[in-house]
User: What shape does this take?
Amino acid sequence: MTFMEALAAGFTLVAQWESIAFLALGVTIGVIAGAIPGMSATMAVALTLPFTFALQPIFGILLLLGVYKGGIFGGSIPAILIKTPGTPASSATALDGYPMAEQGRAGEALSMSLYASCIADFISNIALILFAAWLASFALNFGPPEMFTLIVFSLTIIAGVSGDSLVKGIIAATLGLLLATIGLDFIGGTERFTFGSVDMRGGLNFVAVLIGLFALPEIIAYIRNPEAKKHRVRGMGYSRLKWPDFRRSLKSIFRGSAIGVFLGAIPGIGAAPSAFLSYSEARRASPQRENFGKGEVEGVAAAEAGNNGVAGATLIPLLSLGIPGDVITAIIIGAFMVHNLTPGPLLFVNNADIVYALFIGLIASSFLLLIVGAVAIRAFRYIADIPSDLLFPGVLVLCIFGVYAINNSIFDVAVMLVMGVVGYIMLLLRFPAAPFLIAFILGPMLENSFRQALLMSRGNLEIFVRGPITILFWCLTILSVVMIIRATMRAARLKREAARSASRVAAEPKA
Amino acid sequence: MLSRRDEILVGLGVTLLAALTLWWLIPAYVVIPRRVPIKALSPAFWPMVIGWVMLICGLAVVIRAAMAPPPPDAIADDLRVSRPEAMRMGALAVLLIAGFYSLRTVGMVWTSMVLFVALVFLTGSKHRVLGVVAAILLPLALYFFFTKVAGVAIPQGRIVRLP
Assistant: This one.
């Protein structure tokens, strides 16, 4: 299939009213879920996943991508109005968004957030279209040793940047890898860790694991301390975004989008570092830098551009290499797998129509976000009024039905409940959940490529440094480990010094 | 950031888990074929690699926590659970276990309704009436979606069956 044929086939798939309807529905669900304090884009995508199984692949995946895009923007609404970021990446938006809301300029901040999000999202989608196919054609040359080193590199970054300790990230990843070995060995067909259970022979269901890991710990945390979810909503105010303010912020929006695209394309980095880097770069370059942190509209623009700039770019490693860049794309990979689609270089060869339909759908999602976001900003007060004491029991019921519906299996519900407890313990002990889930997904591919490589070399480990690609990935892995360790040590030292100086100030007698 | 004591206990826990995996779980629960031409093709080889990495990381957590300066109390997480918190979490555990075992006998819809109402009351909600209404409507809506639209056979139980 040539490029033009694939594009035409993709357009035919998207040019159905159902495609646009499911995309719009997804964006709406995402914005609402992102805007509800206590919900997150991750949870929204995870809970929507079971509802996509009955749909055609293109409708289901567009629905999930809509939820993803909407959820990332929706998280900025509570960040601005109640200083409770709906997603970790929206924390940077709260730095200037909430002071603006306190000054009665919430409408201005929310409008800027929406426009910056849509522009960055659009740029990110264009980057995806430009780079994914190119990277996929390059990755077609990868053999098992190259795939192994690529996954090791990806897991190292994900383990390093997801939490505050590289070692704990690696432990979380090893737990995920260990869990992925449950079931029948794919070479010999013998049982591993099934404990004699027929249900465990096929391995643990991925959706049950992810919903347990990401939705249940929130419910347990809420039941433990229901008072923690109380919040105060700021009014919208009467100020509106002015054209000169928007125009002077454009530079920061484009810079933030570029940062988002670059960091989003690297597996594991995610939206939060991108939002903060974009914010700090905007502050450094802005003539109004002294206003940053006190209610500067350019700060909101930069943070949101950095945040949304990753949304399309995280799909580059997913679609072209089959490597999920973050937790949400790890969930989206589930939708592909359920519909017998395997993300990776071969997707561009075997299912080019679906790939190009997704590209066109993603471009449409940027425009839909503009419309849905504008309505959501005005309706936020009603969304935020959903009481947590009804929201979380509702989420639990959704989890039970959704997980059961995947395989008509009560055993999957048990897996979800157990994983919920595991996820809550990990939360308490500060083990990041992202490396656990992504290692669980990539585990079979990692083991397969490892064993295939050793089979090719008759057990000789030199195959893992057989060419420039494997050596490049090893070098990148070592470099990232060194950088992560340095960054972790510096952050820990700064934290300790800040705490010590705070306790010294508190201990000093008042004059 | 956890306190030094908690961090050491976490490291020891991970080390213990890795040791159990290496010297009990893998020998007991991984079936190895009689003839394996290359060691790496053994079904136990990859879990062994994971186990050793986990063991090294667990020890690294212990050593780092023991040697690094302890975090000031101001930034160390408090893992203690108060009595009301423990009671609520205990009640949640009982509800989830009972709910799981009643899915087949009572049915998913009725179990979900009871779970919903129980959680609303457990958290001392002020929206009890709304909670009961939502507890009835949400499972019914999900039942009709999954049964009639998605074609999934939701467990009906043996007591009251839905159309």
User: Anything to note?
Assistant: Residues 4-29 of chain B form the longest helix (26 residues). Chain B touches chain A through 78 residues (CB under 8 Å).
